[in-house]
Amino acid sequence: MNRGLFGFLGPVQPRSHSLRDVQRAVKDGVSTPRLRLRPPALADLPHIRRYAVREAFYRYMDMEKPTPEGIGKYLESAMATWRRRRPAELVFAIEPGDVGRIVGLIRIRIDEDDDRAASVGFHLDSDFQGRGYATEALREIVRIGFAHSGVARIWAEVDTRNTQSCALLERAGFRREKRMDGHRSIRGTVTDWYLYAVDRPRSR
Questions:
Q1: Can you give the pTM of this predicted structure?
Q2: Of 28, 70, 157, 161, which sits 20 to 30 A from 184 (CA to CA)?
């Protein structure tokens, strides 16, 4: 979803807010009951190359079938997000404890036009869908995003045909805000998208 992660790792303009505090707080990764969310590594490349060439991976992304070279460049860019002094974007590897290797990636990115907001995007190896890993990862990214950055709103866009991602976002606490007809073209097909969002919890 969100054009895949591939479409969001270009040059990032400086923001007044950054994910620096997130980077410091979880520089070695963060654990949930079943997962470790950590900086991606070169050792992840064979696993990403295996699942990213499947049609199920890029079905709702505005891209052709990924090439091995393109996947390698993408991973390099994902790793580079952790080396920036004031990162506006961070990409995490999703590694379940009972699997012992990467099964997907999830990212958070400060908006260019509103640095009090951030977007999220994720993808998961189709062999591991339906186990709740992506929902658990997303809930944790939202938690640390609100806890360690200045953002007040986290949002995501999803193709209306992608019912699995819609359900996942709702399980993670996102609300559907609006439908955007003709929002994006996917390999020549005009598609409708939903906007989902969650706000920072109010202090009691």
A1: 0.91
A2: 70
d(CA 129, CA 51): 12
- Three-state secondary-structure class, residue 202: coil
The DSSP H or E segment spanning 110 is strand 104-110
Listed residue (54, 99, 52) closest to 72, CA to CA = 52
All structural domains of the chain with their residue ranges = 6-152
User: Is 167's pLDDT higher than 80?
Assistant: yes
What is the DSSP-derived secondary structure letter of residue 132? Answer: S
- Taking only the tens place, the pLDDT of each residue in 42-72 is 999 999 999 999 999 999 988 889 999 999 9
Distances (CA, A) of 38 to 122, 136, 142, 161, 179: 14, 14, 15, 30, 33
Six-digit token pair at 92?
């995490």
What single-letter amino acid sits at 98? Answer: D
User: Which is it for strands 117-124 and 153-159: parallel, antiparallel or unpaired?
Assistant: parallel
Calculate mean pLDDT across residues 82-90: 93
CA separation for the pair 190, 159 (Å, rounded): 10
The CATH architecture one would assign to domain 6-152 is 3-Layer(aba) Sandwich (3.40)
